[in-house]
Design goal:
The protein is of the alpha+beta class. It has 5 helices and 8 strands, in the order H-H-H-E-E-H-E-E-E-H-E-E-E.
């Protein structure tokens, strides 16, 4: 599936969410609830893939859990204390992929409400950077990563989206 089609389907699911679940955003309810509803709208649009919320499995790891290698200095840059071994457990908010392989990872989504801390939002961006490129032991190679921030309360209905491809943040018009 080409990137433009992925983005078109993602946009469609987001618009369904904003239309049908506006009350969740207006009330500022839990992010996991929001993610569950977005998964519900994504699933039929990506029926040839598995659409999984909070999926941390990694068939290629001995312990079958996703993790990323992130350099200590990158973690310090965003204000997070680095781990002793540069390894961080990973549970993406929503992924669109084929289970039991890392050869068909299409889209990784990290989702936040506007009320989340800047540090948490920055960590999501760092994770997407590392999930979309193969280096330093990170082997997920998602074709596309997207960081969504949804407005809540008085800003319900607003959202921003930032895309990552090949480990680099890219404007929508430059994605391939």
């Amino acid at each position: 599936m080409n990137v433009n089609e992925v983005i078109h389907r993602l946009d469609n699911a987001i618009h369904q969410l904003l239309e049908r679940e506006h009350n969740i955003l207006k009330r500022g309810l839990n992010e996991l609830n929001l993610n569950g509803h977005l998964t519900k709208y994504l699933s039929p649009l990506f029926d040839e893939y598995d659409v999984d919320p909070e999926y941390n499995g990694d068939i290629a790891k001995i312990h079958d859990r996703k993790e990323l290698d992130i350099a200590n200095n990158r973690m310090r840059e965003i204000g997070i204390n680095p781990s002793h071994d540069d390894r961080y457990k990973l549970t993406p908010d929503i992924i669109i992929h084929t289970r039991n392989t890392n050869d068909n990872n299409l889209l990784a989504l990290e989702i936040k409400k506007d009320s989340n801390s800047a540090k948490n939002k920055e960590f999501d961006l760092l994770k997407l950077e590392h999930m979309t490129i193969d280096y330093q032991g990170n082997h997920y190679n998602y074709k596309l990563g997207a960081a969504l921030v949804f407005g809540t309360k008085d800003k319900a209905g607003d959202y921003t989206i930032r895309f990552f491809q090949n480990g680099i943040e890219c404007d929508r018009e430059y994605l391939k």
